[in-house]
Design a protein that fits this description.
Blueprint: E1 4-8, H1 13-25, E2 31-35, H2 50-55, E3 58-61, E4 67-69, H3 71-80, H4 84-90, H5 95-113
Parallel strand pairs: 1-2
Antiparallel strand pairs: 1-3, 3-4
């Protein structure tokens, strides 16, 4: 039974590497992987605008449909693939705040880090 759906930017090389690693160890097939960069992706079915999905990673707990974002998505993914001890460590006081802060810093600069900015313009436009 699927327990979590992750919405990821398949055009982001770093994001794609992380997702491929998780796919490779999702032996119990608990995760639904949804690439928001595909033309057929419909954000209306998620209830979160595409731009918001692009700003930071989002996921959905199944079957409740509860949306989560940021580092909590990675906690859900790692729990689904059997890395609960690692997830526990990410919830420790101080560690949680540091990881949340670091992820926000990455998410704000993700396009630049992955070479997807043109000069000072760092925006992805949807092509659908």
């Amino acid at each position: 039974m699927k327990t979590f759906e992750v919405f990821f930017d398949g055009d982001c090389p770093l994001c794609e590497k992380e997702i491929n690693l998780i796919k490779a160890v999702d032996f119990r097939k608990k995760i639904v992987f949804t690439d928001i960069s595909l033309p057929e992706f419909n954000d209306a079915q998620v209830g979160v605008p595409w731009r918001t999905l692009m700003e930071r990673i989002h996921g959905r707990r199944l079957p409740s449909q509860e949306i989560v974002e940021g580092v909590e998505v990675f906690r859900e993914l790692y729990s689904a693939i059997g890395l609960s001890p690692l997830v526990f460590l990410t919830k420790l006081p101080g560690v949680r705040q540091l990881l949340d802060w670091a992820y926000v810093q990455f998410a704000q600069r993700r396009l630049r880090f992955t070479g997807r900015c043109l000069d000072d313009l760092c925006e992805v436009r949807r092509t659908t």
